[in-house]
Specification:
- Pfam families: MerR (PF00376), MerR_1 (PF13411).
- One of its GO terms (molecular function) is DNA binding.
- The protein starts with a helix and ends in an 8-residue tail after the last helix.
- It is an all-alpha fold.
- Helix content is 68%, strand content 2%.
- A two-stranded antiparallel ribbon has the order 1-2.
- Helix 3 packs antiparallel against helix 4.
- The protein has two domains: 103 residues, Multidrug-efflux Transporter Regulator, Chain: A, Domain 2; 123 residues, Orthogonal Bundle (Multidrug-efflux Transporter Regulator, Chain: A, Domain 2), CATH 1.10.1660.
- It is elongated.
Length: 237
């Protein structure tokens, strides 16, 4: 088929199709006697697989997967897929951890938390959480914690809501979430001022994880179709 036909089939420009070929995402096209590209159903399946992989694994990983598959390096491609599935599973575990903690953290409202002997010094809060003070400083640099300073001494003062934030951050870190993601959650929590806002964030997060899981299933089916159209050796790596 002509480049324009393949492009229209997938809602792409002909230049995009050529770029994907040049990048190794789909195999090189056969050339006619006059030098024009002649694409096949295998190329169409390859583009379909790549476009299905993107919402499931992101652009960078999807390119790596397609280059490996197109290049006959099936084991390498499967490793990228495994990593994506493992990340999704880890995110689900983290979500479950936070959801399970919400009822416990609900006690740490401003009034209840006020009875926890706040303000804490950095050393006292570190002991309360079983952490090193250096960890709390790292969290502060990442934007996870924003404790005020004593205007007289310049020392950090962890008030009731700061203690709540630190406890939640500790749960998220145990769940394997990176500091950047935790900082984003804490910003939303501080802006909204309530755990109810966090619950809504988690609800959206669950929806995102469900969408990603469905996208991975669909991408797997499209990738399998592409593999069927490649040379038999692609199945064995």
């Amino acid at each position: 088929m002509r480049p324009v036909d393949l492009a229209r089939q997938h809602g792409l420009s002909t230049q995009a199709v050529r770029n994907y070929e040049d990048a190794g995402i789909i195999p090189p096209a056969r050339r006619s006697r006059t030098g024009y590209r002649d694409y096949t159903a295998t190329h169409a399946a390859g583009l379909a697989a790549y476009l299905a992989l993107v919402p499931a694994f992101g652009y960078s990983t999807s390119r790596r997967i397609m280059r490996a598959v197109t290049g006959g390096r099936l084991d390498e491609a499967l490793e990228y897929l495994d990593d994506g599935h493992a990340l999704l599973a880890r995110d689900r575990n983290t979500l479950r951890t936070v959801e399970a903690a919400l009822s416990h953290l609900g006690a740490a409202t401003p009034h209840a938390a006020a009875g926890t002997r706040a303000p804490y010094s950095i050393g006292e809060l570190a002991r309360h959480l079983g952490l090193n003070p250096a960890t709390l400083r790292t969290w502060e640099r990442a934007g996870v914690l924003t404790p005020p300073r004593d205007p007289r001494t310049g020392h950090r003062q962890y008030l009731a809501l700061d203690v709540r934030d630190a406890e939640l951050a500790h749960l998220l870190r145990r769940g394997g979430r990176p500091l950047g993601a935790i900082a984003a959650v804490m910003r939303e929590l501080r802006d909204a001022g309530s755990l109810e806002a966090l619950a809504k964030t988690l609800e959206g997060w669950r929806g995102d994880l469900t969408s990603r899981g469905i996208a991975q299933l669909y991408a797997a089916s499209q990738l399998s179709t592409y593999l069927d159209g490649l040379r038999p050796s692609a199945r064995t790596g």
